[in-house]
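Hi team,

As requested, here is the filled-out complex form for the iron/sulfur cluster run. I kept the field names the same as last time so the parser does not choke. Let me know if anything looks off before we queue the next batch.

— J.
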Amino acid sequence: MIEISLRWADRAACGTHDPDLFFPLAWETLSTAQAADVRSICAACAVRRPCLEWALATGEADGMWGGVTPRERRRMRAARNLRTPPEAPAPHALARQRTPERPASA
Ligand code: SF4
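And here is what came back:
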């Protein structure tokens, strides 16, 4: 299993914005102005780099991550010769891993 941390997500600038901005129903219908708005949020985000690296490492297929669209990430992954790890956990699974463990019984 790959080791991936989502500690950076606590400082995500998108946390205070509408998620639909970052996960539009269809990228083809996203206006240039909307895309520019999202990219400007990501450009100012303190965790842009780890966000993008996470999406590249896990093969995240949807949404804007690190200011990069799915199509752009596919090109980046191809340029890096990356393969999607078959055991790559879904984001919701990672969030579950972040829940503190119950203390071991004595
Ligand atoms: S870079 Fe963009 S998508 Fe990634 S955490 Fe920051 S605001 Fe969110």
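Two things worth flagging: The helical segments are 19-22, 32-43, 48-58, 70-80, 91-97. The mean pLDDT is 80.

Thanks,
J.
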